[in-house]
Design brief:
heterodimer, A: alpha+beta, 10 helices, B: alpha+beta, 4-stranded antiparallel beta sheet, about 15% strand, binds flavin-adenine dinucleotide, binds iron/sulfur cluster, binds FE2/S2 (inorganic) cluster
């Protein structure tokens, strides 16, 4: 798609502005151009005070998550042509704004931290490479959910998170599940306590908002269901396992 | 001004920075360690962008000696052999640590053992990977593991701007930092500083690294007096994706595509590698393939976007989808289906082989200053093998962490020089005071074009001379850039600092390239198209000395292996540049 495109960009500096506003910029769009490219044009040619975040510019770092025409996505991989001639760009929801399009990811990572996102090797795993065939039944389950780039899009899109920011949210629960499913990890119990606990998986209403926006095509809802099942199975056996 | 004290300050959260943090903490959990990154911690830098994988000797039929030989051969025998040896002999420990302590899980063979794939320039298939996006797994796990270590404090979007000496100029006592979000300065007083900011190949018009990298670590180390080695050695990756009108331009299509049997064609449909390296064809080393592609483009046999074509369609659609899902996905972004059709690529600025001179414990020679990862030089000589980069950042990151943890127990705290702090702050704020001045984004564009055209893949004395002069002018012009708006999250202000650092390092690259009157590895001079094994087993060292770097040239120390043992009859004579 070529030609003029209007971008309405949310501007907000918590320190100085009472409320947020939208500034409109006109950019001459070219084939292949992404929202990130348009933002760079605005920054370098029209308004050097506009702020946004990016790093890899190829969908690997998850730094450029934002809401474009009301849908979460990565600015570096969202084509202008998909959005049309009028584009509204605002920062991720459910996270405080640092400035304009850049948000503070701390609440997201606070949830991430809660589920103990780190690997705790069992006695065997701590010695040598695990001998695990990469067949679809065993590693396949993990491999599908492992590619999370912590962009926060799902956290922004999740209705449950917006209702209650204690809810751990899709990405962190998805991370919890990849560790729970990992036969090399020894911390399942304590992790499940949080993941299946009062702020965890049971709150999920299976709305699939997360799946709809995940730029890596993950389905956190699915990991959350697994946690629920496992929690129920554990409860039936008695105890929190 | 905010003041913070810590024991170890780590700059950068790539493989080098995060490994340094883990190792320093493990050695002494009582230490106060800060990891500060210009981007988000664990979400910035190039280690995250590693696609192909990690070279490491694991298989009983492979050996550390073989990996060492491949590394020297790739490096044109001017590697620092101590460092190269350390790289290959430590790598198995680090990959094991990644799997057994950090929780990474690399791809497996059907029998459950770790899969290793073919990468160019290697005598054995030794590249460990997770699919074709290996770096995400490595960095995510390194970051996750930090949550188990409370003694490590992570600072997002706090940028190092200048190293600080103590009052009598004897040792590094800290670092002046700038919080991107607030625009406020922070003086960090540290017993040791580890620099791991990952180079600045992004100074080239077409380049692969993440956008925030701007040679910052190198530039601040340079201004603090560190010594540099072989700055002319700049690697171009042969297959940067061409994405017209987009910043995606130059993003890498991984080397595994060629390893798996991909073909390269010019616009006439010729498999041009037949004319450059008929034996190894597309599996030749990076420097050769990149230059071959460049020469085709320059000879008018390039595509509309000034590129060549890579094709893997003949491997079968299913295979391509299975082996390279990430690459297929990326090509979709430019409207191409890699599994069935050729895709336009160009050489792209990628990696610094040159950098700060270190010993194998990453010590820079300046008390308190350790350097690791891409900011350090000498390990890869004239050309880095694909897959040796993450090995480098993890191996030397770990060593820097160990060494710094050891060092800080032996010294006492120093006060930072206040006069230095004041001077730097004034300098950095200057762009806000300039009434008129240049747009830093335009200046960066100009720099990219200049470096690409005059200090790029094929160089000559005349062009380099022009570049040296123009870079000198640009260094002056950066100081006249003008910035408006507030200080908080001011990207234009940061761009001024970026350009300043890239110009500084670009000057070293141009000057070293002008000095090396031969072709070797990634450094090719069309006016000296020979590899001069008679006179040029030498390293070029530079340190700051007023406006221009001071230079010294020294013989390579062959501490482990003589050129004869690797190159036989051609070891000491001039040969046609390969
Ligand atoms: C696209 C691509 C693909 C690659 N593929 C491979 C591969 O398959 N195999 C391989 O071995 N190597 C590969 N490499 C090379 C490899 O990525 C690098 O060798 C290695 O990751 C460098 O690690 P590092 O820790 O030194 O720096 P990086 O990982 O780049 O980290 C730099 C860090 O420093 C931060 N930083 C920058 N400036 C400042 C500052 N002023 N203050 C504070 N922080 C700062 C950044 O935000 C970042 O956190 C690839 C590189 C690229 C670009
Ligand atoms: S699950 Fe998907 S949307 Fe959520 S943080 Fe991870 S990559 Fe982003
Ligand atoms: S900039 Fe890294 S995902 Fe967009």
């Amino acid at each position: 798609m070529e030609g003029e495109v209007k971008l309405h960009v949310l501007r907000y500096e918590p320190e100085n502005d009472e409320k947020a506003r939208y500034d409109t910029f006109v950019v001459d769009a070219k084939d292949n151009m992404t929202v990130l490219d348009a933002l760079f044009i605005i920054l370098s040619e029209q308004d050097p005070t506009v702020s946004f975040r990016c790093s890899c510019r190829v969908g690997m770092c998850g730094s450029c998550g934002m809401v474009m025409n009301d849908k979460e996505g990565l600015a570096c991989r969202t084509k202008i042509e998909k959005l049309g001639r009028e584009i509204t760009v605002r920062p991720l929801r459910n996270l405080p704004i640092v400035k304009d399009l850049a948000v503070n990811m701390d609440p997201f990572f606070k949830q991430w931290e809660k589920i103990k996102p780190y690997f705790v090797p069992n006695a065997e795993a701590s010695k040598d490479f695990a001998q695990i065939p990469q067949d679809p039944s065993r590693r396949g389950i993990i491999d599908q959910s492992l590619d999370c780039i912590t962009c926060g899009c799902c956290y922004s899109a999740c209705t449950l998170v917006s209702l209650d920011d204690n809810y751990i949210g899709p990405a962190a629960l998805n991370r919890a599940y990849t560790l729970v499913a990992d036969e090399r990890d020894a911390a399942t119990e304590s992790r499940m306590e949080v993941a299946a606990g009062e702020d965890g998986a049971l709150r999920c209403h299976t709305l699939f908002n997360c799946m709809e926006v995940c730029p890596k095509n993950l389905v956190p809802t699915w990991s959350i269901q697994k946690i629920k099942t496992k929690a129920v199975a554990g409860a039936l056996k008695g105890g929190s396992k | 001004m905010e003041r913070v004290q810590c024991d170890i300050l780590i700059l950068g959260s790539g493989g080098a920075g995060l490994f340094a943090a883990h190792h320093a903490y493990d050695l002494n959990p009582k230490l106060k360690i800060i990891v500060a990154a210009k981007g988000l911690v664990g979400k910035s830098g190039c280690t995250r962008m590693v696609q192909g994988g990690y070279n490491v000797v694991l298989h009983p039929n492979d050996s550390v000696e073989l990996h060492f030989k491949d590394t020297l051969k790739g490096g044109g025998m001017i590697n620092n052999q101590e460092l190269a040896w350390t790289l290959v002999s430590d790598a198995p420990k680090r990959i094991l640590e990644l799997e057994t302590r950090m929780g990474c899980f690399f791809d497996r063979n059907p029998d459950g053992t770790v899969h290793q794939k073919a990468f160019a320039g290697q005598s054995f298939d030794r590249t460990v990977h997770r699919g074709d996006l290996t770096g995400i797994e490595i960095i995510n796990r390194l970051r996750d593991q930090l949550y188990a270590k409370e003694g490590v404090i992570a600072w997002d979007e706090v940028r190092a701007v200048e190293l600080l000496y103590n009052d009598d100029n004897q040792a590094i006592a800290g670092c002046l930092m700038l919080n991107l979000r607030t625009g406020q300065f922070i003086v960090v007083e540290a017993l040791a500083v580890i620099v791991g900011t990952g180079g600045g190949a992004s100074m080239y018009k077409i380049a692969a690294p993440s956008l925030e990298k701007a040679a910052d670590g190198m530039a601040i180390a340079y201004r603090a007096g560190a010594e540099f080695v072989d700055m002319e050695m700049m690697q171009f990756h042969p297959t940067g994706l061409l994405a017209e009108n987009s910043r995606m331009n130059g993003g890498v299509l991984e080397e595994g595509l060629r390893g798996a049997g991909g073909h390269l064609y010019n616009s006439l449909g010729e498999r041009f590698m037949a004319n450059y390296d008929p034996e190894r064809m597309e599996r030749s080393t990076r420097d050769r393939v990149a230059r071959a592609a460049y020469m085709e483009i320059m000879a008018g046999r390039g595509t509309r976007l000034d590129g060549v074509l890579i094709s893997v369609a003949h491997l079968g659609r299913k295979n391509v989808l299975r082996m390279f899902p990430g690459m297929v996905d990326r090509c979709k972004d430019v409207g191409k289906d890699l599994s069935v059709e050729p895709v336009e690529v160009s050489p792209t600025g990628h990696f610094h082989m040159g950098g700060v001179r270190i010993n194998k414990d990453c010590f820079s020679g300046i008390p308190g200053l350790f350097v690791s990862g891409e900011d350090a030089g000498g390990i890869h000589g004239a050309n880095r093998l694909g897959g040796n980069g993450v090995a480098d950042s993890t191996v030397f990151g770990a060593r820097a962490g160990d060494a710094a943890a050891e060092y800080v127990t032996q010294i006492k705290r120093q006060k930072v020089s206040e006069s230095q702090v004041n001077r730097f702050v004034q300098e950095i704020l200057q762009p806000f005071n300039n009434e008129t001045g240049e747009n830093p984004f335009d200046l960066r564009k100009e720099l990219g074009k200049l470096m690409w055209e005059k200090v790029g893949l094929v160089r000559n004395g005349q062009d380099l001379k022009i570049a040296i002069d123009r870079l000198e002018e640009m260094a002056e012009r950066v100081s006249h850039c003008k910035v408006s708006g507030g200080k908080a999250y001011n990207l234009a202000w940061h761009e001024v600092l970026n350009v300043k650092n890239m110009v500084e390092i670009g000057r070293m690259i141009a000057l070293a390239a002008y000095t090396r009157n031969e072709s070797r590895g990634s450094h090719y001079r069309s006016d000296y198209a020979i590899t001069d094994n008679e006179n040029w087993y030498k390293n070029i060292y530079m340190t700051q000395n007023g406006a221009k770097p001071a230079m010294k040239i020294e013989e390579v120390q062959f501490t482990h292996m003589l050129p004869e043992e690797l190159l036989g009859q051609t070891a000491r004579i001039k040969v046609e540049a390969s």
